Amino acid sequence: MSSIVNGAGKVVDFVDQRITASNWLKRNIRKVFPDHWSFLLGEIALFSFIMILLSGVFLTLWFKPSMAHIAYEGAYLPMRDVGMSEAYATTLELSFEVRGGLLMRQVHHWGALIFLAAMSAHMLRVFFTGAFRKPREINWLIGVTLLVLGVAAGFTGYSLPDDLLSGTGLRIIEGGMLAIPIIGTYASSFLFGGEYPGDDIIARLYPMHILLIPGLILALVTAHLMILWYQKHTHWGGPGKTNHNVAGAPFYPIYVAKAGGFQFIVMGVIVLLAATIQINPVWLWGPYDPSVVSAGTQPDWYVGFLDGALRVMPAWEFYVFDHPVSLSVLIPAILLPGIILTPLALYPWLEQKATGDTREHHLLDRPRNVPVRTGIGVAFIVFYVLLWIAGGNDFFATILEIPVNWITWFIRIGIFVLPPLAFIATKRICLGLQRRDRDKVMHGRETGIVMVSPDGEFSELHAPLTQSQAYELTWHERQLPSDPGPATDANGIPNPNYRSKRVQARLSRFYFGDVVQKPTVEELEAAHHNGHGSDSAHRDELPSGQQ
């Protein structure tokens, strides 16, 4: 045993003398990571991606990405002697003849669904808490790109079995490409290798699914983690937490042990789902036939909103020089993703421009303290969910026993009415929570004890907050709208930037004009002087520098 230890020590010493690895380890092994549960969402995405890679390697050994037509002679008797592509036949072989093949197929599919769900939840957490602000704009762009690549990876993999359901999805993609003016037919012919469905689409999607897209995802995940490591982690405010430090547990051994255990939990849940809940039973759909469309089919959840947009879009079409322009397909299939992704990717700079805040931020916002941003996020979620419901309008019509056209018209009207209402309601809720926090700091928390004064007046007894509790409610900065300043200086010379400053000030008032500011020390003393708690108990409860 001692010889092994001595040998290992010599190897470590040899490496350290040449690349000084010990200095790097000493500097980084004690790096601090926050321990709040919300930071685990990104880890769920990472660990599920690892499961996707491992199960994908297994599936690659048996799957044949060929559209060559054969007669099935495998073990699944209902399909015996049925004509199909080699891709579909090898998918059946994986499901019924390869030991563990069906489990690996389902692990791969469930892992993809959880990967995208975890990424979406992680990005929502980043958005609502303001973790995208300077200096993390690049990581936000990487996150948006990873989300797009995840959808692309999921859709290409979903299409590979060449079953009736996946073929219908490819047909929708082909229809969207054909709706693109001028270049649509050329793009479709290039992708499918001629007239749809062609003979090449599976062979072309296969290297994209197993090599190109995973490689890009792996590279961007690596870049994301390197930037995160360099910039340090964001964390929630509280006692002892500032923009200049990170409070939490060291990377080794605590974070490594926690992350390692959590990795096994995530992987175990994916395997449990795969082993107990059936997903995408391709043998029930049958091989793809361009002349057949199955009823009651819905895509995976992450592309359901695009299918929903196609279902609720009116049949609008016009002609330009005798050439049709089908807005009913062009808008939902081609333009809508760009309409969603462009402001999503640019939002850090849009908010920075609106608020005029160009400082670095390492403390997270409580969503209630930025009502407009929170309202925008909830409005987008409502918009997305409405389109997602539209993607299953036939399913909901069957379950609710109402005409499918009722659901379609509800969605058509709702996507214009409900998101603004959700924004207004969310903003009002946030302002109400801010008022409650302000009252709690000024007057203490309600105890439920009602006192009767000698002259018969009823009043509720309020208990003073501790200094730690008051700090948690008041550590955030005061958010005041910006002032454009005078149109001219003291010498009467016009300010050349005054017009842009006025626009920025209006946007700033939109963001911060209604915010309920935390109380100042003077306001606290006045409230306590009027009998709302003990002045000595509250005088120092606001954090220094934020009064």
Automatic annotation (TrEMBL):
Catalytic activity: a quinol + 2 Fe(III)-[cytochrome c](out) = a quinone + 2 Fe(II)-[cytochrome c](out) + 2 H(+)(out)
Subcellular location as annotated: Cell membrane
The keyword S-adenosyl-L-methionine is annotated on this UniProt entry: no
GO cellular component: plasma membrane
Membrane topology per record: Multi-pass membrane protein
Entry EC no(s): 7.1.1.8
Main location: membrane
GO MF, any single term: oxidoreductase activity
Keyword vocabulary terms for this entry: Cell membrane, Electron transport, Heme, Iron, Membrane, Metal-binding, Respiratory chain, Translocase, Transmembrane, Transmembrane helix, Transport
Cytochrome b/b6 N-terminal region profile domain span: 11-237
Residue segments, region Disordered: 479-498, 524-547
Top-rank lineage group of the source organism: Bacteria
GO terms of biological process kind: respiratory electron transport chain
Residue spans crossing the bilayer: 44-63, 109-128, 140-160, 172-194, 206-230, 251-277, 329-350, 370-391, 406-426
InterPro entries: Cyt_b/b6_N, Cytb/b6-like_sf, Di-haem_cyt_TM
Name the record gives this protein: Cytochrome bc1 complex cytochrome b subunit
